[in-house]
Specification:
- Helix 2 runs antiparallel to helix 3 (89-108).
- The termini are far apart.
- The chain is flat.
- The chain is mainly alpha-helical.
- The chain has helices at 34-51, 55-75, 89-108.
């Protein structure tokens, strides 16, 4: 018999099932969190560098973290990436690489006020 909802409107075949489709735990294992934790740790390191007035090194670190996220998204299976999978693979990779490139340009000073003259 299925899980009863408060109003009793679900049929047994419509009731939510417990666990993942393959019978494993819901949300995956700790292995799906490792790539995200690596990217987040690198991002935090960049933010710490920026907060310590090393903004060029910090933006470089942020750019590397985004390039790492793009590389992971490109070469690792989606079911092993967990929360790094947001949209399509093409969009995720191009968006991360675009932001990474903009941060590198910012770090090298290509967007500075002195370059406008």
């Amino acid at each position: 018999m299925g899980v009863a909802d408060p109003w009793g409107t679900l049929m047994p075949e419509q009731a939510p099932k417990k666990g993942a489709p393959d019978g494993g735990p819901v949300g995956g294992t700790w292995r799906t969190a490792v790539p995200m934790l690596v990217v987040v740790a690198w991002l935090l390191a960049g933010l710490i560098l920026i907060s310590l007035a090393h903004w060029r090194r910090g933006t470089g670190s942020l750019a590397i973290a985004l390039a790492l996220a793009a590389g992971l998204r490109l070469f690792v299976a989606p079911e092993k990436l967990g929360p790094l999978v947001i949209r399509s693979k093409t969009f995720d990779v191009l968006f991360c690489l675009l932001l990474s490139g903009l941060l590198i340009a910012l770090g090298f000073g290509w967007f500075s006020v002195e370059n406008l003259n």
